[in-house]
Amino acid sequence: MAHLQSLDMNFQQLRSVREAVRRGFNLTEVAHALHTSQPGVSRQIRELEEELGIDLFVRAGKRLTGLTEPGRQVLPIVERLLSDSESLRQASRDFSERDVGPLSIAATHSQARYALPSAVRDFRQLYPQVTLSLHQGSPKHVAEMLLSGEADVGIATEALTQYEQLVTLPCYQWTHAVVVPPNHALLDGQPLTLERLSRFPLITYDVGYTGRAHIDEAFEEAGITPSVVLSAMDADVIKTYVELGMGVGIVASIAFDQDRDRNLRAIEARSLFKLNMTRLAFRRDAYLRSYVYAFIETFAPPLTRQRVEAAARLSSAKQDDDAQQEAA
User: Fold this and answer.
1) Do the beta carbons of residue 234 and residue 204 sit within 8 Å?
2) What is the pTM for the complete model shown?
3) Cys staple from 151: which of 145, 186, 217, 298, with CB 3.0 to 4.6 Å?
4) Which H helix or E strand runs over 242?
């Protein structure tokens, strides 16, 4: 029993260190997050430093102001130990409750609105006892939720590949479409070009959302400066303002529904903008329960459990190789 209490105390020390860094070295916020007192947090950190024989934090009086060089070296190990401990608990729950538990999904607005609903419906029929929570945000926010452990699975665009701590897998490609009111000049049957588009005020996605980078790149490469009069995160918002006559919309093709969007017309823009890739991601060191693999395959059938596990192993091996090269 004493051994288990000691082990638990060690993990509490590690959590105190991790939260101190995550919360900008504000021990009051750390204490609140860990449901303990500020003196308790300080004691946990000090005890760990004494046990290790090094100072992890730079101090100004009693305040923590940053990490020491040893602290910067130790922090990734602390993160890994805590992640591994959570994976052990997840593995235990997975064997005792294989089809019961939470599943947190982070996605961009377009994915949540247009790509996910059918997959969520089908998954719920297979796993009715899994509690789903859906978070929406930019690709950056999706990545941050994955890295913090707030989300198990993330779905966004290519931007997810910028984070080395994530395993990212391609799901499907998609294109943009131009949406206009009926009888608009662009519906005259003439080829759609960037030059013709630039004659009209444009309404499209915010920077960082739903392939906006490919839209900007296309105009820049053509030497054309478009007039973007309004940008938004959500295609439904973009289409609303197009209906009001404020401009021409550029949205993801999947965001146009001929039955619902009866007051608009869509023009395929595949030839104008690069193809976009929707990607699914999860944290490299995360333990995925069996129903998480099932959800991934429901959303993207080619991503079987075998393929996902192989990608995770390959990603981990590459990280180890990179670390060895840096050390050399």
Assistant:
1) no
2) 0.66
3) 145
4) helix 235-243
What's the whole-number mean pLDDT along residues 95-113?
A: 84
> What's the half-sphere exposure (Cβ side, CA atoms, 13 Å) at 44?
25
Per-domain residue ranges of the chain: 2-90, 97-174+281-327, 177-274
pLDDT digits 0-9 by tens, 25-55 = 998 888 888 888 888 888 888 888 888 888 9
Domain 177-274 has CATH 3.30.9.10: no
Closest residue by Cα to residue 286 from 11, 10, 13, 82: 82
What pLDDT, on the 0 to 100 scale, is given for residue 3? 39
Is the pLDDT at 91 greater than 80, yes or no? no
233 token code pair: 């995160």
Q: How many CB atoms lie within 10 A of CB 88?
A: 11
Domain 97-174+281-327 falls in which CATH fold?
D-Maltodextrin-Binding Protein; domain 2 (3.40.190)
CA distance 263 to 185: 15
Integer CA distances (angstroms), 140 to 146, 147, 280, in order: 10, 11, 13
Tell me what pLDDT residue 98 has.
67
Report residue 269: phi and psi, to 5°: -115, 25
How much is the pLDDT for 325? 47
Ranges assigned E (strand) in 108-145: 130-136
Q: What is the rounded CA–CA span in Å between residue 45 and residue 14?
A: 8
Cα 157 from chain centroid (whole Å): 9
* Topology given in CATH for the domain delimited by 2-90: Arc Repressor Mutant, subunit A (1.10.10)
